[in-house]
Every structure is written in C-alpha cells, then in structure tokens.
User: Fold histidine kinase from Actinoallomurus iriomotensis.
Amino acid sequence: MSPRVMPTPRRVLESAQPLVLTAALVWALLDESLSRHGRPPAADVCVALLVLGWCVWVWSSRRPAGQIGALTLFAVSGGVLAMVATNGPGTAAGATALAIAATGRRPEASLAVLGVAILGTVIAAVVAGTPPATWLGCAGTFLGCWVIGGVRRSYGLRAEEAEHALAQERRAVAAEKHAAALEERTRIAREIHDILAHSLSALSVNLSAAEGFLADERLPAGQRELVKAQECVRRAGRLAREGMAETRQAVLALREDLRPLTEALAELAETHGAAVEVTGSPVEPSPAAGLVAFRTAQEALTNARKHAPGAAVRIRLDHRADVIELTVRNAPPEAGVARPLADSGTGHGLTGLAERAAVVGGVLEAGVEDDGGWRVRLRISS
Assistant:
C-alpha cells in the first residue's frame, strides 16, 4: 500500500479560498444595511459586480489570468461598495479578495490587484464625498490583509521547500542503503562464484575423467558393477553441470542482471527435454519473482524426472494483466519403468517453493490430476 500524501499548507489554503470568497459574497447579498430602501444605485451595481466576480472566479478555476481578473473585480467592487455604503460589507469583501490574491498568486500580480483596488476606492471616495478617515481605514485594511496573505504564502512556500528537502534526503538515504545492499550482494555473488563454481567445475572435470577411465576397452565390458559405476558417474556429472548452471543463475540474480524468464525457462526445458509454451504479452517480473518462477520450474522438472522418468513434460507461462502464472505438468508415469531416483531428496522441495512464493506475494499449488499426472502451478502478481 502506498503511503498517504499529506496536503501541504499551501494546498490547504488554496482549498479554503473558494469557501472564504463565497462567504464574503453571501454576506454582501444578505447584509441588512444593503437591503434598506433608498440606498444609492451604485451599491446595487457593486453587489452585481461582486456576483459577477465570483462567477468569473468559479469559471476560471484552472486559468490563472481569469482568477486574477476575478479577484481584481471583487476587490474593486468591495472597495467602491465600502465608500458608497459605509456600513456595508464592502471592506470585508475587498480584503478577502486581496488576501486570496496575495496567498495564492505571484507577488507582482497580487500587488497589481492591491493597487487597482486602492485606486478604485480612493476615486469612489472622492466622487461620493466620503470622509478621508473612512477611505484611509479601508485602504489600510486592504494593505494589511494583502501583507497577511503574502506572509502566509511565504510560509507555505518555505514549508513546501522543507518537505521537498526532507523527501530528497530520504531518497538519498534510500539510494545509499540500496547501493550498500548491492555492494554486499555483489560480494556474496563473487564469493559464490569463486568458491562453489570453481569447486563444481573441478568436480565436473574429475567426473569426466572418471567416466573416461571406466570406458577403457581394457576393462571387462558388461559387468553389472561396472555398468552401475558408469551410470553413477554419468549421473554425478550431469548433476555437477546442473549445479554449475544453478550457481550461475544465483550469481546473476545477486548481481540483478538475471536473464529474461522466458529465455531461462527455454534453456531449462531443453536440458530436461520438456516443451515450453508462452502466452500473453511478456512482462518481465522482478528479479526476485523471476528467480522464484525459475526455481519452481526447476524443482517441478526434477520431480518429474524422479517420479515419472520418460513421461512428457510441458511448461506453460501465462502473462496476464496483473499476474503471471507458471504451470509445469508431467504425464502419468509409464508402467514398468524403473524409478531409481524416486527415493532421493529430502521431500521438502515443494514446501520450500511455497515459502519462496509467499515471500514475493505468490501462491503455489501442486497435486495429482485426474489422469494420474502431476501439476505444479505458481501465481505471482505482477
């Protein structure tokens, strides 16, 4: 589950702006001082302009230029309304618009709105004959709200910068940890390669030499013990070669350059004489999930060779929208065929695969089918 993103102070302020502007408009529409008869016609015009400014604000929610125009109209209308109806809510409406402009807009744009609003207020005061104390108080309120909005904007920007810096620091720490983990995995891969791979190579060479000695024509041919010894040496050589391939695969996984899953399965199937079918649009799983799928196919093929030697085996890899499904199925064992490897192993292979699958969020199913064959199925969410 992805972490919840907390809203920044600036986003909180921006989300509250429409409510504040709407509250100022409702106050202007319902104020009793503007509902009395005999008020100047200019007050009606100002209220109409406030409504128009609010409509433009709502319409231009994604257009910065339209927002500035709407706030300018709202602020100027509020200032003029405060001069022609001194007891009305005009000052509050204009101050609200200026605070919003300073909070969410660039300083030069909000300063232009402030200048136009104060100029309109002074002109309306001169025309209406409003006392200087009234328009000076209104202009001072406008200026104070504009300053408060600017301070809030600066605070929000600093808070966002601090959050970005913290996020960058966290990413840097995560990258450092990841680099350290990669370095450790590379060291482990190098140790595995230098120790296990070299040992298996030497073992394979010695087994090949032993197989050659046992094939010497001077030895009596057809003896039962000699035939068994030759079979054991050949089997041990094959297991050594498979161990080398598995070691190489583990080293590649540790170095995070694991081969594509389809390519690895094709090579594995060729080694065991199995058929491979890939359906859907190939989507390469994560290195961990790919390794689990490969190990599952490997264990299933080994079990088929142990318990159903000579039976047909098919590997099917299905790529779906949100899951990959690997199915390995072998036909029923033929009657009378010897199974010399049936009792080998610890019997915990499928249990270990199920545990591997659970680590990467997958599910492993295994069991006998109706015709007596065996099926292993792995599902991993992509």
Q: What stands out?
A: Residues 9-169 form one domain.
